[in-house]
Amino acid sequence: MIKLLRAAAIGLAAAAVLPAGSAFAHHSTAMFRMDVNTVLKGTIQRFDWQNPHTWIVFDVPNAKGGYDRYGIEGMSPNYLVRHGWTRDTLRPGDNVELTIHPLKNGMMGGFDVSVKFSDGKVMYNLPHGPKALP
Amino acid sequence: MLLKASGSPAQGWMKMSGRRAPWLAWVAAALGLGAQTSVWAAQPSGPQGLTWASIAKLPDWQGIWQAHFGRPSGAGPMLTPRAQANLAAYRAKQKFGEDLQGQTANCLPPGMPSIMTQPYPIEFLFNPGKVVILIEAYEQERTIYTDGRAHPAADILTPTFQGDSIGHWEGDTLVVDTVGVAPDTGAGIMEGVPHDADMHIIERIRKADRDHLLITRTIIDPEELVKPWTTTLTYTRVPGDLLEYICEQGNRDSADAEGRPAERIKGP
Residue B88 CB: number of other CB atoms within 10 A? Predict the structure, then answer.
């Protein structure tokens, strides 16, 4: 019986199996184009420092002379505070470049990968690098 | 009716290994034969933390511990044909936009075993007869009863997100036995493979060195797994304390009943 079961079973390679539950956020990344980095240059309107995700309201100048207002999700403040961020890392009025993984549905949103400040300093939101560990 | 320890702790544990003798349970475990596997097959040794004086002799697990993800240690799970079918159906649904988002997007905690592999720290608190694991993600806790009690009888055991956990110490290792995890919680054994009501999880937890804690986890679920699946995850001690995590505070994400994701971009 066990032999039959073994013959019928497929063993999954360890590398194909991540721990159940996202190692990223309280939800999956399915909404975002994780293979695309979009750079947005604009002005911080609001930085909400709360769980489960920090939230950036970001105005980007558009071709019509106005602004496109983006809503960008970030890592939990619990994660960010352990990686050098504070609630004041982004302040209303800051002119920065956000690199985001955009929403698949084309709406003005995405997940923040990193922030580049006007002095050139870069801070990462999303875990990055080959061993991107929280 | 909860079975209580009687006589010496060792006698109590022997009695509570179920209908089979402990040695049979060990053989059953070796063959991966299902939910009757008893963690009590191995005898407790060393201080058991039933009193504060005994707790003072337990290993020092102070601090907060962060799981490390990366290449999992151990082989992957060997799925039964039924589990493979579940996984294939799950992946097929994803192509149609369903099952892309679990109920954690609606701030339901994932339950065992996923609650132990979240990207936020955990902390161990010792009390006489129990070890409590505080889990920052979703502000969860697991209570592991080390006072010698058995799991509640099947007819009164209410399935829960965390399950019912009992444990004992074998020297520097806390051995935890968990049953009674509600089958409709979380990501299951792995994403796309829901677990059954009789899923049985055994964890062996010990410190490898001052800054590293290892949890070797065995999942036994004969309907989904051909044989028990064992992996070891390393947790690193990180500075600071656990922080609040109220998921509902600012949640903009959601999943409908079919697992279709949505995000509220506008508004507060």
Answer: 11
